[in-house]
Specification:
41% of the residues lie in helices and 21% in strands. By secondary structure, the chain is an alpha/beta fold. The chain contains ten helices and eight strands.
Length: 232
């Protein structure tokens, strides 16, 4: 494994109305191995900058971007200095040795990026089933979702055109283009841990079935603008 250099990885966190959890998330990120060598960019889609104004952590790049997760992540990527981009949701925690795994994957021949397995942060058994289904799905399709902490070599991200300006499914769209271009994606079996708040707030069954239906309709060609109204 090549030795990691300062700013070898840029971690880009798109946020909207996350002032209540952002400092906790950044504190957890500091405990990740090699995180001090990473550049952290928080991109706020709220024009008032409510989340970035709440940040107390030092050495964090804080910018405002156009509202929309894909547009925000593109804004962060444009100013990122790292050779590798890692797109992280504010309510998702990386495993302690995440950066080692990312560097190792991106130093492998023909690997341009990847993602982690998913674990929902709850002890309820139903979530273990959802975790397992997500891991099987991503490996069969070779297309991870955004809450799996997608990472990619910056040059490849730029060459492929970044995230499209669509209101939803920007993660699936990007990974489909990567796949169709013939690039290889690596899956890290050590999972990220994402908050169960969406499932708990919307209902586990409803949220799970809704997500499956939305992704299926997107694959079938339904425009993202039509799908957005079903995803708040």
């Amino acid at each position: 494994m090549k030795k990691m250099r300062a700013k070898d990885i840029s971690i880009i966190i798109p946020v909207i109305d996350e002032s209540s959890i952002i400092n906790q998330s950044l504190e957890a990120l500091k405990k990740t191995a090699l995180s001090n060598a990473c550049e952290i960019i928080v991109v706020d889609g709220d024009s008032s900058g409510s989340t970035i104004h709440a940040i107390t952590e030092k050495n964090i790049k804080k910018i405002k971007g156009p509202r929309g997760r894909g547009a925000q992540m593109n804004s962060g990527a444009r100013i990122a200095g790292g050779r590798i981009l890692l797109f992280l949701h504010a309510d998702t925690l990386l495993p302690v040795d995440a950066m080692d795994h990312v560097i190792f994957a991106c130093n492998r021949n023909k690997i341009v990026g990847g993602a982690f397995d998913l674990e929902i942060d709850s002890d309820r058994f139903i979530y273990r089933l959802i975790d397992k289904i997500a891991s099987i799905r991503s490996r069969l399709t070779r297309i991870p979702y955004g809450d799996q902490a997608i990472f990619m070599i910056k040059k490849t991200f730029i060459d492929i055109g970044g995230f499209k300006k669509i209101p939803i499914m920007e993660d699936i769209d990007l990974m489909r283009r990567i796949k169709h271009a013939g690039h290889k994606i690596h899956f890290i079996p050590e999972p990220v841990k994402t908050s169960a708040r969406r499932w708990e707030n919307e209902g586990i069954v409803f949220c799970t079935i809704r997500n499956i239906l939305l992704s299926t309709m997107f694959y079938l060609g339904v425009p993202p603008k039509s799908l957005k109204k079903w995803y708040k």
